[in-house]
Structure formats: C-alpha cells, structure tokens
Protein: Mitochondrial poly(A) polymerase
Organism: Solea senegalensis
Amino acid sequence: HQVLNQVHNHTSVGTHVGASQVQAAPDHHSDEKENERRRLLHVVQAERQEQAERSVLISCHATNSEKKFLKHLSKYGDIKKHFFYQSFGLYAVVEYSSQESVASLLEHAAIPTVNHESMVPFKSRLLSLRSLASVGSADQQSGQHCQPQTSPPISELIQRLSREESIDQQITALTEAYQLTEENIRLRFLVCSLLKDIAAAYFPECTIRPFGSSVNGFGKLGCDLDMFLDLDGISGRNVKMPRSGLSLEYHMKSANSERAVTQSILSVIGECVDKFGPGCVGVQKILNARCPLVRFAHQPSGFQCDLTANNRVAMKSTELLYLYGELDPRVRSLVFGVRCWAQAHSVTSRIPGAWITNFSLTVMVLFFLQRRSPPIIPTLDHLRDLAGPADKSVIEDNDCTFVSDFSKIHIHRNTAALGQLLCEFFDFYASFAFNKMSINIRKGKEQNKPEVVPLHIQNPFETSLNISKNVNSTQLERFVALCRESVWILQQSATNSPSGESGATPWGLAALLQPLQVPGNKGRKRRSREPASERIKSLLESLKIKNQS
Ligand code: CTP
Ligand code: MG
C-alpha cells in the first residue's frame, strides 16, 4: 500500500515547460521556485483524477450553438470548464464544479429508444445531445472552437521548422507542436475515469490510473493511453488480525499465481468493456503477454487504449522518466526530436514487431545524456542513493527506490545546446558497440551484454530483463545507418543553413524528417569512410560558432 501511495503521489502530469524555459540556460542550484513547481506537480495527478470525476463527455452533433448548449447544461449546476473537439463528430468535455451536478444531469438523461435495436442499459458519463430543432446547417455548426487532439502532419511540421533560425529553435518548436495539450491530458484522465466506472461494477474501490507517455512528459498528441487498474487501495489489505479473540476476514477465491489473478480480472473486465462499454470498440484480450492487457479503441476520444493490472513496475518507470524529464528541459526536447525523427523513418511503428519502441528510444536518449561530460542527468544508482526512507520501494523483489525530492539532486553544469546534443546523439549511436555492450541507465555506463541479442537495453527496475529484446538485427542496422546519415545532414545544415531566410528548403531538423538515403546507397558509403569523430568535430565547431553569434 505504501508503494502505491508513492506511485499515486509522484506520478504526475502538469503543464509542460514553455518555449522560454526550454531556451533558458538552466540554473539548477538555487532555483527554489522551480523545485516548488515540481513538488506541486506531484499532487496534480490526484487533482486531475478528481477533476475527471466531475466531468462528462457529450457527443454534440445536434448542437446548434455553444451558448444554447452551455445554457442547457448549466441547468444542472456550475460549469467550471468546457471545451469542444472533433473525433468522428463533435464532442464536448464539460467539467462541473461539483459531483452533484453530474448526478443531477444523469438523473435527467433518457435511455434512447431506437427502432430495430436493443440497448444495453449501462449508464455512463458519455452522453449524446438531442435537439428537436432542425439540425445541421453550416452556420449553426460553426459556433464552436475545437481544440486539436492530433499533432500536425509531418509535411506541415517540416515547413514550420524550416522557417526557424537555429536547430535549437527547431527542436523547441517541434516539442511545442507535438506535446500533449492541457485539453488532451484532461481527456485522457476522463477516459480513465469512465473506464473506472465500468471496472467499479466489480471492484467499487478500484482506481484506473494513466501511465506511460500519457503522463511521463514524453507523450505526443495521438499516443496511446496506457491504463493501470489499481486494486491495491482496496480496504482490508492492511487490517491487522488481532492476536486473540474473534475477528472476521473475507472468504475469497484463490488462484495459482498473482499472474492468474491478473488474467482473470482483466478477462472479466475486458468482457465487460466489450459488451457494455459505451464507445469502446475492437476489444482484444491479450492475456498471455508478459504483461497481460486488454486493448481497445475508445471511439469518442479517439484513443487507442491498453488496460493492464498489477503493473506497478511500469508505474515506477513512468515516474522515473517523468523525473528525468523535469530535471532539465533539454531532456524532453531531445526525446521529442528523436522520437519524431524515428517515426518519420519508421524506426518506430504503432504495429508491434521487431521495431525499436518509443520507450527504448527514450532510455537511449537518457543514457546518452548520462554519458555527456559533464553528465546532463544523473544515473539511476545515484538517484537511489539520494532516496530517503519514504522513497523506499520494492516491487516483486525489484528495488525500485529512487529519490523523489528534486532539491536533493545536484546537476552538473553542462550548457550544451539542443542542436549540438541532437547531433552528438546520432554520432554516439552511429558508433556505439551494440555487438558487445548493453545500455544501462542504472549505472550510466555501458555494460557487457549478458546475452546474445542485437540490442540490449537493461530494464531499469527489472534488471534481468532487456526492454528491447524484440529488436532484430535488420532494425538495429537501419537505426545505425540512419544515425550516420543524420550526422551528415546536420553537418550540411551547419555549413549551409539558410539562417534567416523565410524558410523555403528544409534544413537542420526539418531535413532530418524528410526521407533519407537508404543504407547501401553509394553516396552514403563514400561519406561514411570519413571517420565520424572527424566529421562531428567540424560540425560541433560550426554549431558552437552559430550559438555564439
Ligand atoms: N514499459 C516497461 N517495460 C517495457 C515496456 C514498457 O516498463 N518493456 C512501461 C514504461 O513505463 C512505458 C509504459 O510501460 O512508458 C508504456 O509502454 P508503451 O506504451 O510501449 O510506451 P510509452 O512510453 O507509453 O510510449 P508510446 O508513446 O509509444 O506509447
Ligand atoms: Mg504508451
């Protein structure tokens, strides 16, 4: 339970750093305000959960005006916040000031009667607005300003980045265009809360928490929604049996293993989501995976959802990634740049397979940042050593302890610019000894590979596991070749970037997002003969000059 409280308190989401903060040279030593902001973030997850419980999701294809819509909904109570978005039609998220208003709204809603169809009478906070007035004329529909829930297409991003004046600014602009918005984060918590209402039919005391990129700070608009069904808060777990006298305990069904319990819970809840869950489609139960899950699409939000249970280590790694992302604004920006680059070249894919995952890629960026001189972020072992007694966390024999108090973390002063780091990242992995070495953010140093696999990245908490064991040698070779090519492109940009031009030809990061020459091409081979270290030296020199000017 204590472990869970920590997870609860520390995994948080907040408004992300803005452009000015991204560009500012970080001064980590005396920034108490910054630490205060981070501490506050630790309670934001609980706040967002509570917000979500006071919210409803309404399909508004019959809305004739925002004013009328709000007037109608205000009948049930004070509206604190609302916004519209498009996803197979117009939807609105409406947050009331109190939960009683939601109850009153639900009380007045009708069960639809549709000819030739029968309804499962499962009531939820997903509703449709009906109107008796005529519907659908163009000017009536145009009243609402919609909040985008998807990132701009890559072609548009390339154009946008080409107009920036430095690679640093390009990376910052990319982060801003792709990161989750306030509205999108609210929608993610609302979907968790709607799902909780379904799971609560069996487990009234359960919670459903988002984890992974929805909350770790590295999520891109459109990323999947990873959810964790949390049953550890159920009362009775910590009730101590008296040493003498009478007492009662629950009579419960037992199973062979923890895993079997998780599988049967997910199987039943998956069935419930499939048969009763409003808006939930394409439900797949993937119960034999290492981490059993139920996958489905939540149509009203447009989110691809993965529901897991008993997955506390993943909650810890989410918390760790979040912490690293908050330590220095360059961490998030670099991860966004690299993730976007990887997506543009199909290094990563939404389809499971032998590809490198975003999670692995993020750990690779963290490792690279630990290997800078001086290091930009500390090792996980160091974060563990700084931990206080309240931070102690052991999950299934895995030591998941690390410090939660940001102010205890001393950061070395390394002022390398983002553009320089991006280039160094590609150069670092273009020549990394993948054949012999394993990437290890716990030690912050490569270790001998414990097994023969193309890519070995140690799981930070379950240290005997390799988070990239799915990756085959073809995919790794492609990654390395693309890293080499990218160093070359950045070198070109550094020497002939059309700085200041109103951005016609893609350059710098924008050029990296365009199709690159495939490995095996003659031109690429010729360039590769030149030692990487020589190439990068001249490139870094020119980048430094650009930065100073
Ligand atoms: N995770 C893990 N070990 C793995 C894979 C995943 O601990 N081998 C955890 C990580 O905390 C990860 C989360 O599960 O962040 C969700 O996994 P996934 O959805 O694959 O990655 P995301 O970080 O959410 O990235 P994406 O935006 O691609 O969904
Ligand atoms: Mg995810």
Q: What stands out?
A: The pocket of cytidine-5'-triphosphate (ligand 1) is lined by residues 211-213, 216, 219, 223-224, 226, 314, 317-318, 357-359, 459, 467 (CB under 6 Å).
